[in-house]
Design goal:
This protein is an alpha/beta fold. It has helices spanning about 15-30, 30-35, 45-55, 110-115, 125-135, 145-150, 165-175, 200-215, 220-235; strands at about 5-10, 35-40, 60-65, 80, 90-95, 120, 135-140, 160, 180, 185-190, 195-200, 240-245. Strands 2-1-3-11-4 form a five-stranded mixed β-sheet. Strands 5, 8, 9, 10 and 12 form a five-stranded mixed β-sheet that branches. A two-stranded parallel sheet has the order 6-7. The protein starts with a strand and ends in a 26-residue tail after the last strand.
């Protein structure tokens, strides 16, 4: 594999961060594993399509990222690299809020208080499982933009995002709609995002995992992370928010080794 073409698909169009991170990990291991070339995999716009393509090995050396879901552990066709590619920051959630309840919701002190409100989510998002498991009310909505419209229109109360992405969503829409976000609390749960690939591609897995750890160790990964996410995380002002801790039931059989790489806001660093 060392000199092969690595096909990658960025399912979530997450500021190109994941593609740049993959390239960083491959560059860190060039001397050991050889040259590489990254090319886009066509037509893989959803997690399900990417999973099917990896299982069937339709594209040699296909790599994609998504939130961990124990459902796919039973699949013999795919495997994942147990390193949280976004340092776990997507599990630090801040919420856009319907303007009419912006002040009222600040009074929430428990999850039971939050259960009085309806949270909008996309169809089949893993967050829906987590939120419902913790007693929160979720309405699944077809279409990302429709969730924002229903929020501003008062048909749902909250729409929560990773603190690393909420600022771009806010900036892109605040002039088109009366979009506001809560500043009083965060929902916090473990939500690791991993690189996935075909389970037979052991050498590629070894290479990427080695490269990620090298980049983490020399802080080049953190530098890339900060380039894409630091402004949004800073604006979210997590240290000043109430924290509602949620359990992720999808992680019950997952080793905890990856947790040492989680970004810690209290230290201003990832260690």
């Amino acid at each position: 594999m060392g000199k092969g073409h690595i096909r990658t698909v960025d399912i979530h169009h997450y500021h190109n961060y994941f593609s740049e991170l993959l390239q960083l990990s491959l560059e860190k291991t060039r001397d050991t594993f050889g040259n590489y070339k990254i090319i886009a995999a066509p037509g893989l716009l959803t997690p399900k399509r990417s999973i099917a393509a990896a299982e069937q090995d339709l594209y040699p050396n296909l790599v994609f990222e998504m939130a961990y879901d124990a459902e796919y552990d039973a699949s013999p066709g795919i495997d994942f690299i147990p390193f949280p590619v976004d340092l776990g920051i997507m599990g630090r959630r801040v919420c856009f809020v319907n303007p009419s309840i912006k002040e009222t919701i600040k009074q929430a002190k428990t999850l039971a208080d939050l259960s009085k409100y309806t949270i909008g989510q996309g169809i089949n998002w893993v967050d829906t499982i987590i939120l419902r498991h913790n007693g929160l009310v979720v309405r699944e909505i077809d279409g990302f933009e429709n969730i924002f419209k229903m929020l501003v229109g008062g048909r749902i109360d909250l729409f929560c995002h990773g603190s690393s992405q909420f600022l771009s969503e806010y900036t892109n829409r605040k002039n088109q709609m009366n979009l506001v976000y809560d500043e009083s609390f965060e929902l916090q749960y473990l939500l690791p995002r991993f690189f996935y690939l075909n389970s037979k591609n052991r050498e590629l897995k070894k290479r990427i995992e080695s490269g990620l750890k090298l980049a983490y160790g020399d802080r080049s990964l953190l530098k890339l992370w900060q380039k894409h996410f630091r402004e949004s995380v800073d604006v979210a002002n997590l240290p000043q928010r109430k924290v509602f801790l949620l359990e992720n039931p999808l992680l019950k059989n997952l080793s905890k080794d990856w947790e040492k790489y989680i970004y810690k806001t209290e230290s201003g660093d990832s260690k």
